[in-house]
Amino acid sequence: MKIRWMLLAIALAAGMTALAAVSMRSAGNDRLAATGAGDEARGGVTQQAAGCPVKEKPANLQFTLQDMYGRDVKLSDYRGKVVLLNFWATWCGPCLAEIPGFVDLQAKYKKQGFEVLGVSVSDAREQLPPFAQEYKINYPLLVGQNHDDLLDAYGATTAIPVSVIIGRNGAICDHHMGIVDLEQVEREIKALL
């Protein structure tokens, strides 16, 4: 139980840090757009038409996880879609706060090729169906328990929530540690659709 409280404290601290970073990032992007210095100020990285920087790191999609019903799900099956890969747990307060927004994003953009995938980092498979029903989750919940390699690959080993946005080409376009700014995430998703 102490570990869960420590992880919750870490997640809250990460959330506050992430919110500050998002505010600074947003202000910086507004300033860059106003001056017309966007690509040069970002290190010369040019933007693709799909909204994801050309030189972004490819996502490791070679993982197969079970969903909450025990079916195998390959991350590689989602190539060609815009994916929000969210690492979370049922006991994580900031994670729970994000769920209604993710439910809305899934409903709003699924038909355009968008998918939210929730990866529970520590919950047993059997815990997920009643939780999904209670929170009216409309996106796949995957079991990340005992998949430290997956957590390492996406930077979700030290704190949760972590949300990774993957473009249609399989590149990691954005990485958010802590609770997300849903308006920012929606802008990022729309730029990729």
Write the element-wise H/E pattern from the N-terminal end onward: HHEEEHEHEHEEH
**What portion of residues belong to β-strands?**
15-25%
The CATH homology group name: Glutaredoxin
- Overall radius of gyration: 17 Å
Q: Unreliable segments (pLDDT under 50, ≥5 consecutive)? A: 1-49
CATH architecture: 3-Layer(aba) Sandwich
What is the CATH class? Alpha Beta
Shape: globular
Number of domains: 1
Total strand segments? 7
Average pLDDT: 79
**How many helices does DSSP assign?**
6
The main sheet orders its strands as 5-4-3-6-7
How far from one another are the termini? 41 Å
Could you give a short account of the major beta sheet? 5 strands, mixed
Helix-strand makeup class: alpha/beta
Percent helix: 40-55%
Classify the fold: give the CATH topology: Glutaredoxin
Keywords for this entry:
single chain, Glutaredoxin, globular, alpha/beta, 193 residues
State the gist of this model.
The chain has helices spanning 2-35, 38-41, 93-109, 128-134, 148-153, 182-192; strands at residues 64-66, 72-74, 82-88, 114-120, 141-143, 162-166, 172-177. Residues 1-49 have low confidence and may be disordered. With 193 residues, it is of the alpha/beta class.
Polypeptide structure, described:
The chain is of the alpha/beta class. The chain has a single domain, classed as Glutaredoxin (3-Layer(aba) Sandwich), CATH 3.40.30. 41% of the residues lie in helices and 18% in strands. The chain has 6 helices and 7 strands, in the order ααβββαβαβαββα. The strands form 2 sheets. The chain has a 5-stranded mixed beta sheet. Strands 1-2 form a two-stranded antiparallel ribbon. A hairpin with a 5-residue loop joins strand 6 and strand 7. The longest helix is centred in the first third of the chain and has 34 residues. It is globular. The N terminus is likely disordered.
